[in-house]
Design brief:
The structure holds 2 protein chains of 2 kinds.
Chain A: H1 3-26, H2 30-58, H3 66-88, H4 94-109, H5 125-152, H6 162-195, H7 203-223, H8 230-253
Helix pairs in contact in A: 1-2, 1-4, 2-3, 3-4, 3-5, 5-6, 5-8, 6-7, 7-8
Chain B: H1 11-23, H2 26-45, H3 52-69, H4 79-102, H5 107-129, E1 131-138, E2 142-148, E3 151-168, E4 175-180, E5 186-190, E6 197-198, E7 205-212, E8 215-217, E9 224-226, E10 235-242, E11 245-252, E12 266-271, E13 277-288, E14 291-299, E15 304-306, E16 309-317, E17 320-330, H6 334-363
Antiparallel strand pairs in B: 1-17, 2-3, 3-13, 4-5, 4-12, 6-7, 7-10, 8-9, 10-11, 13-14, 15-16, 16-17
Helix pairs in contact in B: 2-4, 4-5, 5-6
Classes of the chains: A mainly alpha, B alpha+beta.
Chain lengths: 261, 374
Amino acid sequence: MEETRFLTLAFYGYLFSTICYTVFFFKEFRNLRLFATGSMLLAALLHLAALIIRWVQSGHAPFTNMYESMIFFSFCFIAAYAIVEGLLKTPKLGFLVHFFNLALLVYAFGHDATIKPLMPALQSNWMLLHVITCFLSYGAFAVSFIASLFYLTPLKRFFRSDAALDRIMYQSILFGFPLLTLGVASGAVWANEAWGTYWSWDPKETWSLITWFIYALYLHLRLMKGWSGSRMAWFALGGFASVLFTYWGVSYLLSGLHSYA
Amino acid sequence: MTAKKSKKHPPSESLLQSIYDFFSSVRLTVIALALLIPPVILSTLIPQGRPIGEYLHAYGEYGFRIIHFLWLDDVYKSFWFIGLMLLLAANLLVCTVRSLLERKRTWGFVIVHASLLLFIVGGLLSASGRIRGQMQLNVGDQADFFIAHGQPVKLPFFLKLKSFEIQKYENEGELLQVKVRGKEEAFEWPVQRNVWVPVPGTEYEMNATRFVPDFKLDQSTREVYSASNQPNNPALFVQVRGGGFDYGEWVFHLFKNIHNDGSHPLELKYHWASPVIKDFFSHVEVIEDGNVVKEKIVEVNHPLRHRGWSIYQSSYDPANHNWTGLEVVRDPGVPWVYSGTVLLVGALFYNIYFRAWRGERKNGNGHQSHKGEH
């Protein structure tokens, strides 16, 4: 089967799990939760299969243009959420996670999906480490963003407590921070291997550093100053805005070494 | 970072204690990071290090004056940016030392902060000591110098270019649109040379047997030849067989609507695309005292390293495949930055994932707070 068929099936799987999570959000049927989580995991497996097929077809890792990176981002978002749901038992978060994920996929489908040849600089194993770790961290930060959205809106009354949402924000950021660090660091090593400079203040590099600063600030304020609650929710929101600008804003508005994705 | 209140001390000691407390405080970390973020954002929005005319054109005279006064046209070399970085470095240093002396923090905490210091030291060493320039060689040439900032810089060895190769992706983007005469649907074929390919739904086969980048026809001999290597008039010779036909015809990228006289069953339209570069390699030798001491194929992502110098594949000339452009770099900051990278990532993963996982296993639940571990 072709990659697009797997991706289409994954999309319908996510659509079904979105409906299940939405109903579950307002009415906590136990069996519905099983359906929601089960269909999400099944859809994620199909999604992974689509990524692997594209990898095999193209002969290179499928994150070398905007379409591929968004499809991968969507997978990382769901993977990060699945981990958070499994560890923190927070299925209600799935409601908005799935809406945003569907929007991301629909937006991705509007992009050119043609497999393009790989330019010389991208033919490096460092790219694998750099992109996978960056997008896994983005996925984790996206989950913290969803938690902060719930926290800052009247929807938070659907959760056990404010502290539960606060904890999701914190744990997701804590999970994503080392991955972002590894992503930025491996990108620096790769740049040094490809161009002989580990840091050139390229807009994407600079914005990834800004994102790192924001989350470093978040962790310092939370761990050392004991900040929590809505102040930290705004921080998580700001951090994810920086992630989005690093990913999309820089690619579309600012030029630089990362202009391909 | 530690936030410890000072005990009562004599005035001089009290001042030192206050300075010590200030430099090891989380407040300083927070302030320094918060102050660094806005100008770094601005540096991505305002072009850096461009000629004055460009700023005057974009922002007007008053805008340029403000930008220049605040060093926003060269943020990373500004005194205030370097000052903030040094303040952050002092904060990290004092905090790390204090953590070691007071033994209140884990090794993970100490290593994370010490590794950030390595980045700052590496960055300063790179900024002050990096040498970077270009070397251009033709096949068979050797040189023991390169050009940096318009000046020749001597190397302690000769570099000789033995050969140079450019690899291209085959058939990338080159298409032949095929339509059976009298039918509506068209079929697009990514061109493969010298391979017989069936035309779907028909009994015909076709084969692209010859390509010329600059088509010319010798009127006396009726021979086709290429006037140059430049793609001024790309053309493809396609042979078709099957269904009682066996013929060949030239199709042109620039003249897509030139067709045969109607006696051929297929309408062909040719779309030529510039070949996409897959990779380029310089086969080089390092020569010392007349002897070859090292040999390597230098390509993008695979530099040559010798005696502290790194040689990178950087450019090529599409019209001259015997020429290579190499980047020569010596950066004393790299070992510091690489060490910092390994330590930072290792300590963060250990502290956040491994310790947290071990802690949760010990506690036997998934609700342990990480507070106090960092």
